[in-house]
Design a protein that fits this description.
This protein has about 550 residues and is of the alpha/beta class. Among the domains are: about 100-215, Diaminopimelate Epimerase, Chain A, domain 1 (Roll), CATH 3.10.310.70; about 305-480, Alpha-Beta Barrel (TIM Barrel), CATH 3.20.20.140. Helices cover about 30% and strands about 25% of the residues. It has 18 helices and 27 strands. Strands 10, 17, 18, 19, 20, 21, 22, 23 and 24 form a nine-stranded mixed sheet that branches. It has a six-stranded mixed sheet with strand order 4-3-9-25-26-27, with helices on one face. Strands 11-12-13-14-16-15 form a six-stranded mixed sheet. Helix 5 (about 150-155) links the parallel strand 12 (about 130-135) and strand 13. Helix 11 (about 330-345) runs parallel beside helix 12. The two termini are about 40 Å apart.
């Protein structure tokens, strides 16, 4: 009798609903029984939303949405957390994919382990050029740069080029030095050919690396396409729906567009154009390029190198290497000229700046070029070491774009490089947010791991994956969970001029969203890095689902 009564009541209710002239609207997808963090202005949490033609057309309670809309496709979240699609505001998608085609040295704990990986990779392949990336001498027991000697003994006739994890140093053998014409007399502004006993040691830092890249064979279109699709697969499985790729040539941007247009690539890309004359001449003539998945309106510039390889440009010498200041890759006067050109083209300038000298040079160039332009949203990528008196120069027009896992990776040795006073202006995310009113977050993968949950954890807990240090690293610079989520969604979208179309789950916006197995906004901090993505949707389409 009870069952009959419930069914009868339901029939009566539905009859009354339809008889009142309110038929349900058919949509493509209904998500219900969820804890949806909308990341709207009020940071509302709702239970459900409806999607039609790739966009959200209704949000509310599960009852409200299911009474107003009907769909053949429904996602019962079973009370789990749903977030807006995650945006990685600074990464290298293409480099990640190409790295999957070559030797992966990330995580090697010694020079010998790195060399063994090379030997294992090369067995049976007999490749004409061996390339790898990811080594970091700071992770080795002997924290010194390697040399060409070891590579020469294993590969005397095959060129070998191995990029450091940050991409700012290259370990090469004698064959590469020979083919590239690099000698002890080779001088390239903005970097260093490291010498040992008066000869090139096999380590190239920053600008001279280009001489080695020039002799590397270009990958075919098929290899590049494979690389992009393999990198995309990793990103989608981790909840990333938009990637800001920091530094691409036109050929790769065109390939991404082609793959997206053909439906082979679903991931959205905010492409920063690599700073070359050929690229700038083309895109500044072309103007802003915008499709539903590709956005090209910015230029990636390098002010200096990396702290780990002591290439970051500092105002005072390195604390662990007196009289060494690092180097500017792009001198201050060139930064100013380039900034003026980019501003006139209506493009955004996104500049890699690690050291305090580089950061102040970029701030000055930006301020001069922008002058009275109030909505340019130029970014300083990394903003890693900033003099205390310069923080107030950041704003919503000069935006800090940072990578929280850099702090937890570098914390073991950064103070050795900088000293106790200068470290106060390093990895200072709370200070940057307080001054700018906005901060955008990324990973810089493949320099760091792709997983955005690690980004979230590092920003909030300021700990590495071993939960060290116990009380967090300089917790005065941590972000709240709400701020961190905004930095990975709405604020990142704003920095891309895309806040009206993505970054929050609101009516009229694209249905990019992620279903998690862990409530990262409320769970114990230590559970955050272990959170798994159950499903990823782009424009309302399932692009990754563990249940499929």
């Amino acid at each position: 009798m009870k069952t009959f009564f419930k069914i009868g009541t339901l029939i009566i209710s539905l009859t009354l609903f339809f008889s009142c002239g309110n038929p349900q609207e058919s949509v493509d997808l209904i998500v219900f029984n969820a804890k949806v963090y909308t990341v709207n202005e009020e940071f509302d949490i709702v239970e459900a939303f409806a999607v039609a033609e790739g966009k959200i057309i209704g949000v509310g309670t599960s009852q409200e949405i299911q009474s107003q809309f009907t769909s053949e496709s429904k996602l019962d979240a079973q009370g789990r957390t749903v977030l807006p699609g995650l945006i990685d505001a600074h990464a290298h998608l293409y480099n990640l994919g190409m790295g999957l085609q070559y030797v992966d040295l990330v995580g090697t704990k010694s020079k010998e382990a790195a060399l063994q990986k090379l030997v294992d990779f090369e067995k049976g392949k007999n490749t004409p050029f061996i390339f790898g990336r990811g080594w970091d001498q700071n992770d080795w027991s002997v924290k010194e740069f390697p040399s060409k000697k070891e590579l020469d003994s294993l590969f005397p006739n095959t060129p070998v080029a191995l990029s450091r994890v940050d991409g700012h140093a290259l370990w090469v053998n004698s064959k590469v030095l020979e083919l590239a014409g690099i000698t002890a007399e080779t001088k390239v502004a903005g970097g260093e050919v490291v010498l040992e006993n008066g000869s090139p040691s096999g380590i190239l830092i920053d600008a001279p690396m280009a001489l080695a890249w020039e002799i590397m064979p270009e990958p075919t279109v098929e290899v590049s396409a494979k690389a992009l699709k393999e990198a995309e697969k990793k990103c989608l499985a981790l909840g990333l729906t938009t990637i800001n790729d920091a530094g691409l040539d036109r050929t790769i941007i065109d390939l991404i567009d082609s793959l997206q247009q053909s439906g082979e690539m679903k991931l959205k890309v905010y492409a920063m154009v690599r700073n070359s004359e050929e690229n700038l001449d083309y895109y500044f003539t072309q103007g802003i390029v915008k499709t539903d998945r590709l956005h090209v309106r910015s230029v990636k510039v390098y002010a200096d190198g990396a702290l780990g390889s002591r290439g970051a440009a500092l105002r005072a010498p390195y604390s662990d290497k007196p009289e060494h200041f690092g180097a500017m890759i792009t001198p201050a006067e060139d930064l100013e000229a380039l900034a003026s050109r980019i501003a006139k083209a209506g493009y955004q300038m996104n500049t890699h700046a690690i050291g305090d000298s580089a950061n102040v040079a970029v701030l000055r160039a930006y301020e001069k070029a922008l002058n009275d332009r109030k909505d340019s949203r130029w970014k300083i990528e990394h903003a890693q070491i900033v003099s205390l008196e310069d923080f107030n120069r950041f704003s919503k027009n000069i935006i800090p774009s940072v990578q929280p896992t850099h702090a937890t990776s570098d914390m073991y040795w950064a103070e050795d490089r900088l000293g106790a006073q200068r470290i106060k202006g390093a990895y200072a995310y709370r200070t940057l947010l307080d001054e700018a009113g906005i901060i955008v977050l990324g990973t810089d993968f493949p320099v760091e791991k792709v997983n955005p949950m690690y980004t979230f954890y590092a920003a909030v807990a300021r700990k590495d994956l071993q939960q060290f240090p116990e009380n967090g690293y300089r917790m005065e610079e941590s972000l709240t969970r709400e701020e961190t989520l905004k930095g990975m969604t709405l604020w990142a979208a704003y920095s891309n001029f895309e806040e009206t179309e993505k970054g929050s789950l609101e009516v009229g916006k694209q249905a990019d969203f992620v279903l998690l197995d862990t409530p990262i906004m409320t769970c114990p901090e230590e559970d955050i890095p272990n959170a798994k993505v159950l499903a990823t949707y782009i424009n309302g389409e399932s692009v990754f689902n563990v249940f499929d």
